Amino acid sequence: MTAPAIHLWRLLKWGRILARHGALSGIERDPNTPTPVRRLARIARIGARVPAVPRYADAFQAIGPAAIKLGQTLATRPDIVGEAASNDLMRLQDALPPVPYDTIHAAMTRAFQRDPAELFASIDPVPVGAASIAQVHRGVTTDGRTVAIKVLRPGVEEDFTRAIDTYEWAAAQVEAMGGELSRLRPRLVIETFKRWTARELDLRREAASASELADAMTAEPDFLVPKIDWQRTTGRVLTLEWIDGIKLSNRAALVEAGYDMQALANTLVHAFLRQAIAEGFFHADMHQGNLFALPGGKIAAIDFGIMGRIDRRARVWLAEILYGLITGNYKRVAEIHFEAGYVPPHHNVAEFATALRAVGEPMRGMAVKDMSIGMMLDGLFNITRDFDMQTQPHLLLLQKTMVMVEGVATSLDPDINLWDAAAPFVREWIRTELGPEAAVADRLVEGFRTLSRLPDLVRNIERRFPNPPGAPPEPPLKHIEVLRVGGGWRYALVALVSAGASLGLGWVLWG
After folding, report:
1. Which end of the chain is less packed: N or C, by CB atoms within 10 Å?
2. 285 is catalytic
């Protein structure tokens, strides 16, 4: 176990870097900051030349790979770091100086336990991308396919382990101080960050995520996921199909190539909604550098290290919330929050609906270019404070990804109205999943599952209450009719099955 003195030393060292970039000024000014934290920030700032405008992203970049990933996590939490810091942290794109190719080649040899030349005809020593966890090289397999080869940086696991250890310790100390920071659940933030990182440090899991997403997106033929080369993939090396397209960040090249920018933006929004609402499994790092335009107006995604998952109940709530905001049905949105347990029951539903209206109504019918997403998020987080709402873990990634997708869609088509783009998809999904036909199907399935468990129920009762030796067998339940078949007794679940069938029919007819 790491000693508290070591944690404090690391925090002070990181604090010095944050101070030099002006990233501690907000902590010192925030009235909700606990006194011990404010004191530590002041100590870290001693002697530092603080710039007038804080550079949060630059500070996390200077600290190192683990801090970059933490900064990306905090970018989803303007309620913790503030709107200005959250917006600036969105600039973090994982760009780091590359590792020398000799080091990468040695890492590949250890991962494959043989010379990479046995698997690849050629590998370009100049990387096409170098991120905080891995870097990517272009290669050609021995059977002639062009592929992207992603290799973990040597020593990255140890660096993350040390950093996360201190993050967890610091979060526990701060949360124990109570107050506003306790409500924001910093330990949960670090735990979420730890889970994301664990997935990214095992490239087999990233490969599995890409494969699963490809299966889920068959209904969206204009959104493509590269194929995985499983024979050339290990925990430390990922090999996948090479994507030859134009990055969505290069708008000028897209226009020159003749792409329909409005169509690309709508394809992106629809692909995200299908992932998040219809499938419950979504790419959670959809920034412009990870998205490519391909011939035919298609979009391809790369980098599947961070993925989000939402269960069906949460997806239903999400769809109804989105549709309620789109249609202005704030009362229903408020009711959903209470039904989901997001808002404690001692609050008033009507008051919460009014608070939602104050945030949502100014945004309806406006193009994204005329909206202030920062102001909207600030309003929503003020609501969470006023109504004692705690952070929902499964919505952290979703919130971050929605902001990212919105930003990319706006860069493609500044006049896009996300409400209008989302409404048809959300409306159809609600009709399909929550309409009368779906309700009947769900009840029929539930009824048949119940009936299928009855034989096991009878056998369990027989084992629990056996007949004494020599006694004639008796039915285990008085509602089961006993029929004599041949020379022995057989149980027939006539009454029970009939009652179950009648109940199922009643569900179908009367709901």
Report:
1. N
2. yes
Q: Are 142 and 120 in contact (CB under 8 A)?
A: yes
Of 471, 460, 495, 498, whose CA–CA distance to 481 is shortest?
495
**Which amino acid appears at position 189 of this protein?**
V
What's phi and psi for 322, nearest 5 deg? -60, -45
Most confident segment among 31-45, 93-107, 356-370: 93-107
Per residue in 287-304, pLDDT tens? 888 899 999 999 999 989
- Contacts of 372-381 with CB under 8 Å at 24 or more apart are 373/403, 373/406, 374/78, 374/83, 374/87, 377/78, 377/83, 377/86, 377/403, 378/78, 378/83, 381/78, 381/79
Question: What's the rounded Cα separation, in Å, for the pair 354 and 352?
Answer: 5
Residue linked to tokens 């004692």: 388
Q: How far apart are CA 292 and CA 247, in angstroms?
A: 4
Rounded Cα–Cα distance for residues 507 and 239 (Å): 51
How far is Cα 342 from Cα 112, in angstroms, rounded to an integer?
A: 47
Marked catalytic residue, from 285, 311, 386, 456: 285
The counts of H helices and E strands in the chain are 23, 13
Which pTM was predicted?
0.69
Tell which phi-psi region holds residue 330, choosing left (phi > 0), alpha (psi between -120 and 50) or beta.
alpha
pLDDT in tens, 375-404: 565 566 667 667 877 655 556 667 677 777
Contact 80, 186 (CB under 8 A): yes
| Span 6-15, average pLDDT | 87
> What's the CA gap between 303 and 217, in Å, rounded?
16
What mean pLDDT do residues 221-241 have?
A: 95
The residue written with tokens 């036909």 in the block is 437
Structure token pair of residue 218: 């068959």
Nearest residue to 108 via CA among 134, 83, 129, 90:
134
d(CA 58, CA 264): 31
* Cβ(286)–Cβ(272) below 8 Å: yes
Q: Sorting pLDDT into bands at 50, 70 and 90, what band is 369? A: low
> Any idea what DSSP says for residue 275?
I
- The closest of 9, 16, 10 to 47, measured between CA atoms, is 16
CA-closest candidate to residue 142, choices 243, 245, 239, 244? 239
Residue 422: which H helix or E strand, with range? Answer: helix 418-434
Q: What is the DSSP string of 190-221?
A: HHHHHHHHHHHT-HHHHHHHHHHHHHHGGG-T
Hey, what are 258's tokens?
């003749």
